[in-house]
Amino acid sequence: MVENKKLKTLPWVEKYRPSTLDELISHEEIISTISKFIDEGQLPHLLFYGPPGTGKTTTILACIRKLYNPGEFNSMVLQLNASDDRGINIVRGQILTFASNRTIFSGGVKLIILDEADAMTNDAQNALRRIIEKYTDNVRFCIICNYLSKIIPALQSRCTRFRFAPLLPKQILPRLEYVIQEENVLATEDGKQALITLSGGDMRKVLNVLQSTWMAFKNVTEVNVYSCVGHPQKEDVKNIMNWLLNAETFEETVDQIKNLKTVKGLALQDIITEVHSYLHRTELPPRVLCLILIKLAEIEERLAAGCNENPQLSALFLFSILRGTWLPLRIESHS
Prior knowledge:
Blueprint (H helix, E strand, L loop, with lengths): L1 H8 L2 H4 L12 H12 L6 E4 L6 H12 L5 H4 E4 L7 H13 L9 E5 L7 H13 L4 E7 L7 H5 L2 E4 L5 H14 L6 H11 L3 H15 L4 H8 L4 H13 L3 H15 L3 H13 L5 H19 L4 H7 L2 H7 L1 H9 L1
Parallel strand pairs: 1-4, 1-5, 2-3, 3-4
Helix pairs in contact: 3-4, 6-7, 10-11, 10-12, 11-12, 13-14, 13-15, 13-18, 15-16
């Protein structure tokens, strides 16, 4: 009874997290290779890297269940996450202590998992490489990160690296439909497609947005999905492009886009992302397209640096200026 109540309150991303290697929905080559390592008792130090939500942490948690009995988890596994302090003191203290203590009653090697390891300082990573070498007969390390470039080469060379690529729609869809069926969710085909499009290959994001949309609207459609996450809808992007390319005055264009942002709670960053995708579906001379994309990139760079959205929104009016001045000239000269 208590277990059922606990499952009901769990977020879907945790409730439907695969618990064994056989349940994982992608990266068959990686899973089969790691399974072979475990079966033959030849597990090396591991380095998992790739975008969020692609199964890195889930894979190593499934490996733990295959390596150890449930009663051995506390004594055989040490897991540190980004929320923990992982400076040089933790490496020299907690990690070193755990690695140096041998187990008497349990067979096999211990496992130390360093999740989000790209947040570790260079000093901590340099201290870690000596521990990896010294206690290899007793401990295996699994280093997990999003950006491989933030892991020092000395650590990379000591581990077997596996890249977890973004999931393909054909890999996401069966798991998505399974969750929808289990939770009795009303979801349309365009709603499922919107979830997959927004996720960018991130399974965690698919399930989180699915649950949020279901809780908010009780019906998962394309419009509801976009509304739930505050993302511009296709019709909104068409309107924005129409205003930018056909507006008569600067004030008219900026006021219309500002009003849309306010009413629908849109972020300028998301608008620029969708405008970028829209432009690639529009027939424009290559030179014109390149110049427009460069200007969009400059606006996005200023937004990423923390600039105010209002001046950057005004910079989008560049499209109207281009339309009225040199854009026709570029098209004419190209033809």
